[in-house]
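Annotated sample (chain length 138).
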Amino acid sequence: MSTSDELEQHLDRVPTVAELSVRLQVSEEDVIEALTASNGYTAGSLDTQLEAASPASTLMRRLGFEDARLSRVEDLHALKPLIAALPHRDRTIISLRFGEELTQAQIGQRLGISQMHVSRLLSRALATLRSGLLHDGH
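Output written by the structure step:
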């Protein structure tokens, strides 16, 4: 049993900092520092129910989810140097396809090449990016 608990039982109330200081024979500053430090760590069960109405609402369920948006940011961050390494025309095609959301036929018209050629260039560029991501461990 801690000194604070013993004093609380004896006094029938929570002891003051001064009372703890006298009992422990330390300065009040040391007591305050110890009380602050003791509040910094509280162990609790991950199975603690957070909402009475929902038995499935546990701390573990709240802490244990993956944020898909974070994964997307990581993917985009990993893609940036790979896209920068592509030839200019491939970067343009990717930008038009995924940035402006143009169809392959629209991209072909804009660049003066056939839709089939756009398809081949896009497939090659995406394969290069995919390979780069896999090579980096993503």
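Annotation: The first helix runs from residue 3 to 11.
Annotation: The mean pLDDT is 84.
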